[in-house]
Amino acid sequence: MTPRQGKRIVFTGGSGKAGRHVLPKLLARGHKILNLDLVPLPNPDGNGLNPDVCTLKTDLTDSGQVFNALTSHFNFGGLNDGKPPGPPDAVIHFAAYPRILLVPDNECYKANVVSTYNVIEAASKLGVRKIIIASSETVYGVCFGEGDIDYEHFPLSEDDDVNPMDSYAISKLCGERVARGFARRFGNDIYVLRIGNVIEPHEYARDFPRHVGQPETRKRNAWSYTDARDLGQICDLCIQRDGLGFQVFNATNDTITTVEPTLKFLEKMAPGTSIIREMGEFEAPLSNKKIRDVLGFKEEHNWRSYYSHSP
Length: 311
Ligand SMILES: NC(=O)c1ccc[n+]([C@@H]2O[C@H](COP(=O)([O-])OP(=O)(O)OC[C@H]3O[C@@H](n4cnc5c(N)ncnc54)[C@H](O)[C@@H]3O)[C@@H](O)[C@H]2O)c1
Fold this sequence. Notes:
This is NAD-dependent epimerase/dehydratase domain-containing protein. Residues 9-212 form the NAD-dependent epimerase/dehydratase domain. This protein is of the alpha/beta class. The protein has one domain (8-202, 224-254, 284-303): Rossmann fold. Helices cover 31% and strands 15% of the residues. The protein has helices spanning 19-28, 63-69, 105-125, 167-186, 203-213, 228-240, 262-269, 289-295; strands at residues 8-12, 32-37, 54-57, 90-93, 130-136, 153-154, 189-195, 198-199, 226-227, 246-251, 274-275. The strands form 3 sheets. A 7-stranded parallel beta sheet has the order 3-2-1-4-5-7-10, sandwiched between helices. Strands 6-11 form a two-stranded parallel ribbon. The radius of gyration is 19 Å and the shape is globular. The N and C termini lie far apart (49 Å). It binds nicotinamide-adenine-dinucleotide. Nicotinamide-adenine-dinucleotide binds at residues 13, 15-19, 36-39, 58-61, 94-96, 98, 111, 115, 134, 136-137, 195, 197-198.
């Protein structure tokens, strides 16, 4: 078997909740990573720093730092090549304020939009042909919306018109538009991942008794989720699949976080919301059909493997 050719990937925000699980998956697939973050990447066991990934402390809201970091060596080993490195094969941009109520709304909006613009602009102008950016389930407008809002319909798909009202989701939607414009201008691949509520391995035991036992608390997440490790697989599939131009992908797991089948549950919990196509028996309302069909995603971490609900 021919060994798999790993790519040189600059990853932003790798020290965060999602990145800490995505990076090990990418390393295991043979990729080389440089992490751009404000804080270093810890070891998977939480002790010390990760020896396999160098973190360049970079403030992504500063365009000069972004251009500079994208042409950096990945580690001291790069000096042995005897020439300065070129731009990376791919950039994956996860760094952000990941929700509202961390900083004032204007700061969340400004930092997220400016960072995403800076990363996409620098990568595109330096000739990077593959850029992947983290967007969010929140663009569907319910998650951080004011009041008890109904979804337009189910399943939620990448083709839906989206009109969120909160500053975080609007910042993510602006990032999607920047991606679309730059992909048009540079002809590169820019893939947007609309990530669901990210679940780390330890969170199944801690959070799923409530998620599954009190499903009325999960409407804002459309009774869907994203396993942090499966998100690593999704990123790797995006790296592998070239030539799709601008794309939006719901980056979620396969199934609904309820014990009841999807249609039966939605009829009861969202009676006024129409179902616009046939859905799988347990298909997640924030559907990942497109990543399964287009990228060949096969989830490895279904919540039912980690938590079994007994009423
Ligand atoms: N956590 C979720 O449930 C969720 C859901 C949907 C989408 N997302 C998106 O996924 C991505 C990752 O989310 P997360 O939960 O890992 O967030 P996180 O806050 O845990 O990690 C984000 C990382 O970005 C870094 N960062 C922030 N501002 C920066 C800047 N100006 N320059 C450099 N680094 C900076 C932080 O230091 C942190 O390590 C984000 O874009 C978020 O919006 C997250």
